[in-house]
Amino acid sequence: MLKKIPFSPEEHKTAYEMPGMFGGPPTKIRSYPVSMRENIQSMYYEKAPYWFPTSSETTMVVPDIYNINLGRGPMGAGLEDGHITVDSFGLKWQWVQSAGGATVHPGEPYLENANEWKDKIKIPDIDSWDWAGAAEAHTPDMARALQTSLINGFWFERLISFMDFAPAAMALLDEDQEDAIKELFEALTDLACKVVDKFCEFYPYMDGINVHDDWGAQKNPFFSDDVARRLFLPYIKELTGHIHSKGRFATLHSCGHIDTRCNIFVEGGFDAWDPMPMNDTRKLYQDWGDKIVISVIPDRFDPETTSEDEQRQRARDYVDEFSVPGKPAMLGFYGAFAMTPAFLSEMYEYSRKKFLAR
Description:
Elements (H helix, E strand, L loop, with lengths): L13 E5 L8 E4 L5 H11 L11 E3 L3 H4 L16 E3 L5 E5 L4 E4 L12 H4 L10 H6 L8 E6 L5 H8 L1 H7 L3 H28 L5 E5 L12 H21 L3 E5 L8 H7 L3 E2 L7 H8 L4 E2 L13 H14 L19 H16 L2
Parallel strand pairs: 3-7, 7-8, 8-9, 9-10, 10-11
Antiparallel strand pairs: 1-2, 4-5, 5-6
């Protein structure tokens, strides 16, 4: 039940600072009336946050036990360009310094055809991993909502890692490979559900599970709505249903110009999606905001040439448009250009008072 806590100007005072993302400036944390974690929980479960939430109120917990075994190898500073990690499927991931990530060597696909998967792919035994030791090494930030991110996913991104991009995309259209892809996705989804179980057991403070699966490029989705519905939707439902059965929310990371696939994300049971800027996030909010939390990107402005008064007016307009009762939205990662002190300050106080009056 949302508590009605009167606004106080003292809330603007800095309680502490958090390190900035990707080496950016530190984030100042206000003296909130409730924790950022409670605000995010209220957004998901009551559809009524205390103030307009931002991505900085959630933090990702992605331990190396996942990254090395099922992700794309260790991440972060200190890795040398070309560093090789072998995952639990036997795939070699090479760190690319200029990209800030790792990739499987192209041109040497593990599978030539999806029908080979039962002969070549062994599903990892995650029970043998030291989950307790990994969890013991982590100190949670309980002030913010905590998610883990299932990087590299269990569907299209994973198929790409096995087959390379073009063969994987073509396999989705090949009737002779369709049954094998469905069987592989079923096995991988079962693995994903077991991974969720491990996170819930050893990281019980985890609020949500973020699932990776990139579905598009700069201009268009990689595959049709029909393919998404036949080959992906059943497994999305299975995984999000399992996440929800554990009392956690399920969020999506999916890159590309794929706003026409939001119907699949909604039907699949995802609770939130942070679309890239080439998507029409305003229309996504209008069409789907009552069913999925969309990170809406503000109209772009130049902080150097936009006055403080105008930035504050933009913040008020933004809150008014994207906080319809029952349709909460977020200011996400791709709206970081708008996160100036003036915009954030006005967005916070204006939304805090507006939501309090409801």
